[in-house]
Amino acid sequence: MRKKLLSIPFIAWLYQQGFVHMAYLWLIDRIDDLSRLIEAHRPGPRKQVTSFDYWQWVRELANTVSQTLTSANIDHIIFDAKQPIIAVPADSRPKALEIIAKSARPLYFVELENGLPKAAKPAKHRPAGDSLVLTEYLIAPDRTPITDMSMGVRLDFWTQAENWTSPVVNETAETLTNEQWKAAQATHRFPSAFFKVTEPIDIVYSWVDGGDPEWQAKKAAVMGVPFTPDANQTGRYVEHDELKYSLRSIKMFASWVRHVYVVSDCKPPAWLNTDDDFITWMDFPEFFADPSVLPVFNSHAIEAQLQNIPGLSEQYLYLNDDFLFGRPVEPEVFFTGNGKIKLAFSRAVIDPEPVLADDIGATAGSKNARKIVYELTGKMYSNKLRHAPYGQLKSVMRELEERIPDTIARIAASKLRSPQDIAITSSMAPYYAYCTGRAVTGDAKTWTFDLTVPDAIHQLRVRLRQRAVDTICVNTADVSGFKDGKKRDDALHEFFERMYPVAGPWERQGIE
Known about the structure:
Elements: H1 2-16, H2 19-40, E1 47-48, H3 54-71, E2 77-79, E3 85-89, H4 93-101, E4 107-113, E5 116-122, E6 131-136, E7 138-139, E8 153-160, E9 164-165, E10 175-176, H5 178-184, E11 201-207, H6 213-220, H7 242-253, E12 260-264, E13 279-282, H8 299-303, E14 315-320, E15 323-325, E16 341-343, E17 345-349, H9 361-377, E18 383-385, E19 390-393, H10 394-403, H11 405-412, H12 424-435, E20 439-441, E21 446-450, H13 456-465, E22 471-475, H14 485-499
Parallel strand pairs: 1-7, 3-8, 11-12, 11-14, 12-13, 16-20, 21-22
Antiparallel strand pairs: 2-3, 4-5, 4-6, 6-8, 8-9, 9-10, 14-19, 15-22, 17-18
């Protein structure tokens, strides 16, 4: 009895010291390691690929299923969505599953429970359920899985009474009249929803190689200009090849992007082939209205001039190189079908105080932006925007150039961050759009990661198991001084390689 009582304080002490939590994380990670091992050697059909574009793949899969069903004279209708839905008559279910299973592709049926993936089995097995996901098991050359149970085409088996009825929620239509069903058989497609984005969307990155000697020399020459304490914070320029993996995430999950512009005052990284038609590498003199203010080392100054990029689309996304797409995303995550921006509001607030002496550049920039928006619109805001791709309208910046030309010119000429800065893309422009009726509240699922937090390695592993967010922001930092700094860097590299395992066509082979 005494030993039992003595053990209670000891266990409590272990808990207080964090050992119980550490043991839990260790156990979860070991289970993850075992799951990966089992997954890599799981029997069943699979296909190795060297490139992957979700949107091209899922459209092709849907078309293949449609052709297969058509060849067997099975009625069906395709509803266009992130996960295309194919409606099939319930009484044709056995025949449809049988003919799909004969495909030479490595197909799997995924059973659903409450709309969520439950289990995946090779298509030769006959799954239960009136709604299934048909997917294909694709792997990278290093055997890293590319597709998962959440990806693919959904098969819904509709019943017919007075009308045709879907067995589950369908955002386009849950019932169809007999006439509508019959009419749709001509093309096997149902008209797309009216709110789809149809205008082109480009992406703009700002990128810097903090280790570039030429860039360092140019910056050293202007260090006498007043700037806030974080203006030369070395951690801001720690390189983990974020741009490489961010570009891969576009290819894999957001291939609807028309073009990518990378604005930089540095040479491109060795692995990037800038001759690729999809990417334009642009030096500052090519888009600054007044090149005489160059060089600048202030991201706010750069953001004040992005609207001058030749050929840039009206709607575009501004990304830092540590922004990535975390799963297949649609353009409607960032814009509405009638051309408005969708904003990802944060719970974090901008404090109501004016700019304080110890405010970092980002905070000072947000406060100054809020003040200008209030002066222009009479509306005040308090929330920050989340660290995620920032939707922008070129026409909004043109309007701001007309209304506050001196302010825009001053920020563009600001060489380093200062208390007078204005956060353009992350505050002023999107909030001005919101206050003038050109932006609305969005619902993007985002995740911001910090490499310095105690359970950083575990967080990365969890995120690999759960592709549950649209965008990822990796706030990296120099962790060389940490006891486990190398493990953290290695874990981040492993995360990038497992999350985005296939190279983009613009990557030079054999160059890190």
